[in-house]
Each structure stands twice: as structure tokens, then as C-alpha cells.
Design a protein that fits this description.
The protein is an alpha/beta fold. The protein is built from 15 helices and 15 strands. The strands form three sheets. It has a nine-stranded mixed beta sheet, sandwiched between helices. Strands 10-11-12 form a three-stranded antiparallel beta sheet, with no helix packed on it. A three-stranded antiparallel beta sheet has the order 13-15-14. The longest helix has 17 residues, at 211-227. It starts with a strand and ends in a 6-residue tail after the last helix.
Length: 378
Amino acid sequence: MSGIYIHIPFCKQACHYCDFHFSTSLAKKDQMVFALCNELKLRKEEVADSEVIKTIYLGGGTPTVLTVEALDFIIETVYETYLVSDDVEITIEANPDDLTPEVVKKLAASRVNRLSIGIQSFFDEDLTLMNRAHNAKEAQECVTLALAEFENVSIDLIYGIPGMSTARWRENLQKALNTGVPHISSYALTVEPKTALEKFIENGVVPAVEDALAQEHFKILVEMMEQAGFENYEFSNFGKPGFFSRNNTAYWQGKSYIGIGPSAHSYNGTKRSWNINNNSKYLAALQKDLLPNETEQLSTTDRYNEYVMTGLRTIWGVSLSKIELSFGVKYRTYLLEQAQKHLEEHLLFLDGDTLLVTKKGKFLSDGIASDLFLINLS
């Protein structure tokens, strides 16, 4: 078992672009903590006694809307219920406005050894457009506080924001690099259905998101990160040596994990399951010791498609021998046939047994992967 993901489904306020599951009502925080711990105990039978948990990741939502004591309680429940590795990576996602000096020191004194901070931008105009709860000053200050207590700190940035010039994006990145963090995750702003951002764009309040701008920002991102000694080990993730996210790397390499909490997903190699994305129904089920989830058995083709999709986003690529061993020779043959046009256009290349995207093809990796998907082969 690679790891455990725990979803904390609360936020102080709704970001305009976000479609993750969360509630801005914090009235049931305490009940949720006990329900999460109960689910951890009920799911124990899914993990063999000899299996070791290598990563624990508390995401959301915003985990830091809970007290450090509540977060500790959840983490201690993992230790009481599962066999945890001595060098486990324990990540907490945090928002800058929550990271006061007192909170950072408390987190540093806990079992947590990695912080992932949702900066998104170091400019107030971007933060206002996205309806973030913090400002640019808090963004700068919280990273300084975090690095004083934690060696392993990651920050998130968003590019492709309407009105963000390439000059401001470069300055944003330089501010991030100047902090000295060893890991940066950066994502293109996307317009998700039923979000405030979608309505603002429809009503002309905010300009439309432009793919060409996002692509230009991505090129700058890769260039500046590489110059600063970061490796782009997954499309959206950049780490200094020794600071790749072990939790996320396990996802991309197809390792098994358990997802705890409303809307959380789990994967064991052949099945995927997901919890109900309703806090009240989740709480009601766990009060009766019931698991409110659905399960899907993955076909060989499903697993092939997932491996291609995740593999092409990473520096590890797609292994042809693994395709043949795991799925059969006809899948390897199909993959190479479909990849041919992308090889000729220098969007993909073969490094021995491994299929990888080129620099030219990197921004198009998801679209390339979809061309390699298989629908009807059985």
C-alpha cells in the first residue's frame, strides 16, 4: 500500500475557479474529524497487516481550517490503525492566511514533515480575481515562516490567468524562486462547469481564458524552472533533487492508495472506488459504521489507458515492455501504431524501451495520450 489520502472538506471561502468538493460551513468540523477517523478504522481490512504506509497526505478543501490538534488526532489514528514507514512523507495542504507563526511551529512539532502551500500568485490583482482568502503580503510571509521550520515545502502557482502578462508571470515565478522552496506545482487556470469563474466569463465580467496564453506561460515556466535547477518530473510539478512529492509520484506510477473522506478516491490496481461527495450523507453513514462509496472494476483497457495517460505526463514515460507484460502484445502493437504520427511530428520519442514526450509535445501531453487510448480492444 503506497499511501493514504485524507480529504478535509472545508474552506473559509470559495475560490472562483474551484470545483473540488468542500463546504464553507464549518459547523460540523468536529463531527467530520471523528468520521474520518472512523473510516480509517473501517478501511483497515483493505490493507494487509504486512503492508506499509509510505505517504500520508491531508488535502482538501483546506486542512488548515482545522486546529493542529485535530490534524494530529487524524494522523495518530493512522499510526494506531496501520503499519507506517519510519521515513513516511506526511504532507499537509495549507493556505497562507492560516499559517501564523504559532500554527507553523505547532505543525513543525507534530509528525507533519512536508507543507504544500496554496500561494497561487504573489500579486494581489490575481488573488482578488480568484477570490483567494489571502493577499500578496501574506503569501510572501507564510513561505518565510514555513521554511524556517520545514525543509520540505512546496508552493502552488496558477498561470494562464486573464490579464496576466508574460512579464508578470516571469516576475511571479522569480518571486517563487527567490523564496528558496525546493518544490513548485503550477497549474493552468481552467474554467470548470458551474463555477463562479464560468459565470463571470459568460457575463463578460472576466475575459475568457486563452489557451495560447497558457501555453506561452507554460514555456516560460519550464524554461525558468530548469534554469533554477528544478526537474519537471511531472507535467505540473517541479522539484529539486530529493524533493519530488512521494505521494503524487505514487499516483502517477500506478501504486495503490486509500482515499478517506467525502469525495475521496481509492485505487488498488484493479479497482477504483470513490466516496459520496456530500458531507451530511457521509457523516450519517459513518455514524452507522457504513462506508458510503461506490466501486468500479477496471478492465484491462481501462488500466492500459490510465497507464498511458499518467505515464506520458512524467519523466518516467510509458514502458513498452510493461505494456506487453501487463496488458498483452496487441496493446503494445496498438500503442506503437497510434504513436507513429506523434513520433514523426517530434511530439514523442523513444528512449530505448520507453515512450516519452518531447519538449515540443509536453504542453500537448494529455491530448497526445487521448490519441493513444484504446476503446474497443478486448
